[in-house]
Amino acid sequence: MDIESWRKKIDAIDLQIVALLSDRAVAAQAIGKLKQATDLPVYEPNRERVIFEKVRAANKGPLPDIELVHIYERIIDVMRALQSDELASQRSASAKGKDARTGETGKQS
Ligand SMILES: O=C(O)C(=O)C[C@]1(C(=O)O)C=C[C@@H](O)C=C1
Fold first, then answer.
1. N or C: which terminus of the chain carries fewer CB neighbours within 10 A?
2. Superfamily in which the 3-95 domain is placed by CATH
3. Low-confidence residues of the chain, pLDDT below 50?
């Protein structure tokens, strides 16, 4: 296959990754709401250790285990932020053209 064909393959894979990450985020958000309702902490290090172990066990290469786990650490960081509602407020602020932290529009008056 030539470079263009491989790039088309990567574009198609990226669409699947985005859809799967969105599905994962919906599940994490649902867990976050259940945790809020039952006063459980967002951060569950034991559960995260189990996930990293499953990821290592599922890995057939060519990515080294350590790199895959790094990707997962980042994914779960983002899921935790979503559960704490930090990302939800950032997203709605940016949709309105506002700074998530200050709520300012960034336009000169
Ligand atoms: O399983 C949970 O308790 C979750 O909240 C989900 C999740 C994850 O994204 O996989 C997120 C945060 C926790 O620290 C552990 C795992």
1. C
2. Chorismate mutase (1.20.59.10)
3. 108-109
